[in-house]
Amino acid sequence: MEDENWILRKEELESLTKAEMELPKQWSISEGLLYYNDRLFIPDNEDLQIIIAKSCHNSQIEEHFAQEKTLEIIRRDFLGKWITDCVNNYLRSCTPFNQAKAPRHAPFGLL
Between vectors from CA 30 to CA 25 and to CA 32, what angle results, nearest 5°? Predict the structure, then answer.
């Protein structure tokens, strides 16, 4: 873990827990994981973010969700500044998703 923000928040919450003080509203810590409003606070770790984006975008029910649906699914369970950028980057690299999209440009002209 190299996310200083995440590490500092975790240390702060752990110190409050050890001192048997009340945690700030909406924050909780369980098994070394940080939660804010029951959403998992994800550190700035690109590999972990890609795994989350991939698992939320590629569904068993529907092949590949659209951008807004993928963002909604991730934001329901996870918290982090990285979500929008990571999802956008992942969707740009998702070949089946990009092939299934209908073209949104005017018909090509004559040669």
Answer: 115
CA dist., res. 54 & res. 48, Å (int): 10
Cβ-based neighbour number of residue 3 at 10 Å: 16
Residue 8 clears pLDDT 70, i.e. is over it: yes
| Alpha-carbon torsion angle 33, 38, 42, 43, nearest 10 | -60
pTM of the model: 0.68
Is residue 109 a part of any domain in this protein?
no
Which tokens sit at 59? 């569904």
Question: Could you tell me if 47 and 3 are in contact, meaning their C-beta atoms sit under 8 angstroms apart?
Answer: no
Number of domains in the chain: 1
Question: Domain range holding 11?
Answer: 4-99
Note whether residue 25 is domain-resident: yes
Q: Look up the CATH number of the domain holding residue 53.
A: 1.10.340.70
